[in-house]
Fold this sequence. Notes:
Elements: E1 3-11, E2 20-25, H1 33-43, E3 48-52, E4 61-66, E5 71-72, H2 76-88, E6 98-103, E7 106-113, E8 116-120, H3 132-142, E9 151-156, E10 160-165, H4 169-174, E11 186-192, E12 213-219, E13 225-227, H5 231-243, E14 250-255, E15 263-270, E16 273-278, E17 280-289
Helix pairs in contact: 2-5
Pfam family, one: PhzC-PhzF
GO cellular component, one term: cytoplasm
Active site: 47
Amino acid sequence: MPTRRFAQVNVFSTQPLLGNPVAVVVDGEGISEADMQAFARWTNLSETTFLLPPTTDDADYRVRILTPDGELPFAGHPTLGSAHAWREAGGVGRTEGRIVQECAAGLVILRRDGERWAFAGPPLTRYEPLDAATLAQVCAALRIDRDDVLDASWLVNGPQWIGVRLASAAQVLAIRPDGSAFAGLDIGVVGPHPEDDAGPHDGGVDDVPRPDVEIRAFVGEGGGYEDPVTGSFNAGVGRWLVDTGLVPASYVAAQGTVLHRAGRVHVRAVDGEIWVGGDATTVVAGTVTL
């Protein structure tokens, strides 16, 4: 079996071990779908990606994004991590400071945003309030009262996210979910940090940006687990918060605090688009035999 370039990239943190890891097989061409899935199961990360030649002249490269259980049309931290690995392997976009990624959800634009790269959040394909029965299930899964929910909405941009807005970051951090009640729902929760907040929001690390909001994201598949830092949900919730006037055009979200991470997601609204940016660092580099 051929030897292929490989990287494991830490995304959404300036600290190499405090973000969200993604496994990237840089030379993905020629790997069967069965072997891709087997390798994704073996890495046992939330996502493993495979870089491939694009099928359209409009893209710089193509990526397939696999979980241990299947393939995703789009995901945020694998997008930033894959673009980082592609650039480190010598990839150069056709336009300075801009990359076009092809994935199952279509073309995703990435651009340099100061010291980091950001992707344009895909359009929301479902963007509407929850019905009463679904909201009741969400509250049961999060173990919160209905009165605690200020708002809730579908935020589907590939993953089937539901967004829940609470009054404070403290309420978000206090959630202790009931994994058995998720029944496949993917639920993200957001709450604001007060301006004078000095609470636990840095993962024990001093040199991370102070957040404006706190995020947690729970994936309902397989009984439920908490995702450390989630680009796709941050893209959806950014669209929602900007549209409702609850955040400025540029803000920072913290995620992963309860999991002892120091995730920071930099969200910016520009000309009607939501850009989601984050730092990326290669932690493991080498080869795999696939």
